């Protein structure tokens, strides 16, 4: 007697292709999380600077501060597509949180000051981002710029508290972790800034390669499609704006602690424009573009200002024009193109 076996389900070709695509996408996301050896190069360079240029570490610590500041901007500009001209507002909030805490409240412990700066700047980012990020384009640019200007003028209005444009000089902070004294050449400050940068960087890296980071990239590429699939676009933008503001606040706090003074110039438009130029030079949406851009800008600024104290900005402007015309993906993009060229050349030979 024949036994009728139940028919086996045949997976349609389309379903098989969809499963294969999902598996490839998952494998790609997992692979992106892994560290690659070129990622060690910026950190090796930072450590090498400590030993090769021991008398230039004060300048080196300022470069690291600007790398951290540029990294915070890259998180919102390079990955979420939020264009802002007022990012210095959060840098200034962090700088004055630490400065006024030390001058008025006697709060001179440096590490806890960073946490306080992160909280205050994040709060400022959340409150402003909740309202401003409902707008796009030129309107958003003007509103963010106005926010920084209003904070600067509010500080000038309360010059009895902030010191106005004379600032709050002569700040004194406790030894780092209660043990490491600050020296004339900035050895302690350099290590301090480098450790903070490393911690924040790997935190940002986890965000970028997480599903939340992928959603930010989707918003940057096609915000209407993200709305169509039900993504909470506004709240995701507010979240990343808040995080980036907090990181900028940490950079501002480090600036105050390593320089032992703070003035209202931290809120100026020039500060916002400078960090954007750094990011354009290095390359947006690449994380390590902040390293290259800040280092190139600060070194060129130092060189041109010594070469011509009056017209040094001409050199920076020329450098930016050349980058926009011939290296639209930034300095890091040039290295990527060279690497791709040699990889293809090697592949054709094999």
- Report Rg: 24 Å
CATH top level is Mainly Alpha
Strand proportion, as a percent range, falls in under 5%
Share of helix, binned:
over 70%
CATH architecture: Orthogonal Bundle
> How far apart lie the N and C ends?
62 Å
The sequence of SSEs as H and E is: HHHHHHHHHHHHHHH
Query: Spans of 5+ residues with little confidence (pLDDT < 50)?
Result: none
Q: How many beta-strand elements?
A: 0
User: Structural class of the helix and strand makeup?
Assistant: mainly alpha
Average pLDDT number = 83
How many domain regions? 1
Count of runs of 4 or more consecutive helical residues: 15
Kindly summarize this structure in a few lines.
The chain is mainly α and 350 residues long.
Structure characteristics:
15 helices; ABC transporter involved in vitamin B12 uptake, BtuC; about 350 residues; about 0% strand; mainly alpha
């Amino acid at each position: 007697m024949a036994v009728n076996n139940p028919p086996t389900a045949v997976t349609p070709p389309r379903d098989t292709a969809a499963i294969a695509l999902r598996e490839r996408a998952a494998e790609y996301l997992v692979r992106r999380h892994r560290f690659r050896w070129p990622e060690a190069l910026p950190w090796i360079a930072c450590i090498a600077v400590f030993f090769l240029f021991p008398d230039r570490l004060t300048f080196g610590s300022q470069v690291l501060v600007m790398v951290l500041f540029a990294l915070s901007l890259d998180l919102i500009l390079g990955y979420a597509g939020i264009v802002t001209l007022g990012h210095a507002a959060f840098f200034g909030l962090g700088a004055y949180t630490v400065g006024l805490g030390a001058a008025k409240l006697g709060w001179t412990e440096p590490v806890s000051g960073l946490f306080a700066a992160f909280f205050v700047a994040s709060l400022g980012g959340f409150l402003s981002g909740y309202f401003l990020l409902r707008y796009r384009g030129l309107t958003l640019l003007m509103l963010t710029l106005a926010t920084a200007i209003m904070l600067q003028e509010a500080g000038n209005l309360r010059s009895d508290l902030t010191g106005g444009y004379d600032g709050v000089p002569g700040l004194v902070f406790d030894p780092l972790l209660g043990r490491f004294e600050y020296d004339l050449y900035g050895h302690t400050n350099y290590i301090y800034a480098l450790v903070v940068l490393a911690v924040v960087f790997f935190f940002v890296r986890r965000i970028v390669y997480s599903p939340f980071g992928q959603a930010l990239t989707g918003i940057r590429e096609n915000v209407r499609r993200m709305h169509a699939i039900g993504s909470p676009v506004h709240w995701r933008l507010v979240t990343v704006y808040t995080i980036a503001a907090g990181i900028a606040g940490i950079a501002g706090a480090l600036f105050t602690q390593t320089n032992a003074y703070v003035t209202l110039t931290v809120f100026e438009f020039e500060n916002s424009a400078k960090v954007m130029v750094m990011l354009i030079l290095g390359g947006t949406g690449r994380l390590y573009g902040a390293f290259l851009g800040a280092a190139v800008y600060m070194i060129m600024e130092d060189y041109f200002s010594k070469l011509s104290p009056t017209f040094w900005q001409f050199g920076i402007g020329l450098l930016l024009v050349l980058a926009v015309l011939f290296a639209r993906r930034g300095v890091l993009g040039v290295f990527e193109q060279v690497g791709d060229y040699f990889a293809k050349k090697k592949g054709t030979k094999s």
